[in-house]
Amino acid sequence: LQDHDAKEPEQLRKLFIGGLSFETTEESLRAHFEQWGTLTDCVVMRDPNSKRSRGFGFVTYSCVSEVDEAMKARPHKVDGRVVEPKRAVSREDSNKPGAHLTVKKIFVGGIKEDTEEYHIREYFEKYGKIECIDIMEERSTGKKRGFCFVSFDDHDTVDKIVAQKFHTINFHNCEVRKALSKQEMSAMSTNRGYVAILFFSIIGPGGNYGGGPGYGGGRGGYGGGGPGYGNQGGGFGGSCDGGGGNYNDFGNYGGQQSNYGPMKGNNFGGRNSGGPYGGGYGSGGGGGGYGSRRY
């Protein structure tokens, strides 16, 4: 136990491996991924009755830097089949909207008036290559609305960032989430039955992100009853993609509940929730886990 406690958190050292051949065993999975570091655990998830592979598994490295090396070495082919490695999502985070989606853009809340673009760039560029930063401002006054979007060239950078629980930018604590488009949120709602999505708290047309019952105002983080971002008529202008577009496509993280829950969904099932791979990955969790996508 002492040795384990001295290591970086296990969750940050673990990769989900999707798209496995049904012929892949723990031995062949280990043989491939141990090329990039020492594996402390390796498992292929199987049906408890038939023992047939479910087509996904997990590998855990001894340190985060080995995970980084493995992700840099993509694409990976195991037993002749290209597989999809992703940083594993914790059971705690598995229920959050979009936790398992592959995106290259993040939403950053809690941006203060004295925080400039270079503060944001200096903070996030250590994780990976930044494509674009858009700090949202009031169109009429130019006053910061308290949040921004940052786009990267690789979804793994986003996965690595959101796995970190705390982010301090220019001496201010910030909240970071995957930025989900209306289409992605709609797809989640369709695939999962229903999703009670949080509001991003933008307090009215003249207010800032934060304050009141919104940012940090409850266990779920962004509570609040203000309209979702991008739901302000013509949006907030500016677009990473050029053309002077707006963020209406990322508009209104609707729903009537904060605290992210509840979320219904299909999951891969079969592994009881008491085990180390339960929760979102097995039958014990209502979180959908990795079950919304076929491999």
TrEMBL record:
Q: Taking every annotated instance into account, which residue ranges of this chain make up the domain RRM?
A: 13-96, 104-183
Q: Which GO biological process annotations does it have?
A: mRNA splicing, via spliceosome
Classification via SUPFAM superfamilies: RNA-binding domain, RBD
Q: Which GO terms describe its cellular component?
A: catalytic step 2 spliceosome
GO molecular function: any one? mRNA 3'-UTR binding
Arranged from A to Z, the UniProt key words for this protein are: Repeat, RNA-binding
What highest taxon heads this organism's lineage?
Answer: Eukaryota
Question: InterPro entries annotated for this entry?
Answer: HnRNPA1/A2_C (IPR021662), Nucleotide-bd_a/b_plait_sf (IPR012677), RBD_domain_sf (IPR035979), RRM_dom (IPR000504)
Keyword NADP carried by entry: no
> By its UniProt entry, which PANTHER family does this protein fall under?
HETEROGENEOUS NUCLEAR RIBONUCLEOPROTEIN A3, HOMOLOGOUS TO DROSOPHILA SQD (SQUID) PROTEIN
Q: What name goes with this protein? A: Heterogeneous nuclear ribonucleoprotein A3
Species lineage: Eukaryota, Metazoa, Chordata, Craniata, Vertebrata
Q: Gene encoding it?
A: hnrnpa3
